[in-house]
Task: structure prediction
Amino acid sequence: MSDELICLSIPNFKGNEKRYVDEAIEAEWVSTAGAYIGQFEKNMAAKLGVADACACQSGTAGLHLCLRHFNVNAGDIVLVPTLTFIATINAVMYQGADPVFFDCTDNLCIDPSQIEAYLSEECREEDGKTVEISSGKTVKAIIPVHVFGDHCDMVRLMELAEKYHLYVIEDATESLGGVFEQGQYAGMHTGTVGHAGVFSFNGNKIITTGGGGMVVSRDQAAVDHMRYLSQQAKDDVLYFVHEEFGYNYRMTNLQAALGLAQLEELDQFLEIKRKNFERYCELLRDCSYGKIHPFKYKNVNYWFYSFKLNEPDAEKRDRLIKYLNDNRIQVRPIWKLNHTQTPFKGYRAMDCSNAQYFYDSIINIPCSTNLTEEQMDRVCALITAF
Ligand SMILES: Cc1ncc(COP(=O)(O)O)c(C=O)c1O
Result:
């Protein structure tokens, strides 16, 4: 068997990437102005069916812009999943707000029932706001994360948000291309249902700009304000007048050139991700000790694949990871749960036993769009042989 390294998730640049980046360099427009930025925003907005989009430096920056725009500040509470990449929570910390951690359902996404219980039993309404009874703090927002590309239950979350006066910022950093199937949101892209949505173009995402992000909202004024904040909140380009403080969060023209070319490939990548997922399921169907974890919905982007042990067993999970890494297959456990991370230990967490169950039983396996059939065969042969 070959011992070539098979990476977890690497970019796929076989379209116009080089051409557009070369054009940006030749034009000498490489920084935070240039035609590709606006074009990338326009094409993303068209793809997602929204009026406008704001290109920024990263998904984390995008989440921060949303929280800042919705006036989530020190002393406010934001409801977050424990099972997510730490960036979701870091953005809350940047605003000095308090995260409250929630468990996941079987598709790894935040549990709306647990949120409903918290809001109805532990909060009260005060002057049109929702206030946590024990702390007196205002609950301002929910950040549902579409984990690994599967979808949160946006119908229930939006109902709760309306009833309890909350903003919903969809962390769609992992779910670009996914389309909801349920209820009144059927046909809408992930990221476009909440008050704002955020995408990431980090190197491991379905499309990449090296590093980058995009914020979308159905509210044009919100997108305009976030774009303004992302450019140091500059009101006057000649005299450099600033009425607010902002951030250096604008995407560069070089990144946007890459993004524009990658977006042209998105439909093809979605098809490959789906086919590779199905192939993994088939190859590991008879594995005695684990299976590929299913996606709950059909129109997902199949971004990241999870191999799940039949029973949670952290020691076995770690042995499997070591065995595959020793055989030059890059795999990893899902993120250490955020409510157990040192910076967040002082914050409230609900019972997160479902997330713990998945943390102890899942590893993520290679999912690049340029994986070959031989590489997938090798991954599965090693998993089966373990
Ligand atoms: C769930 C989640 N949220 C936020 C981020 C942050 O995105 P970025 O790395 O572009 O800052 C990522 C990805 O890296 C992520 O996976």
Observations:
- The first helix runs from residue 17 to 26.
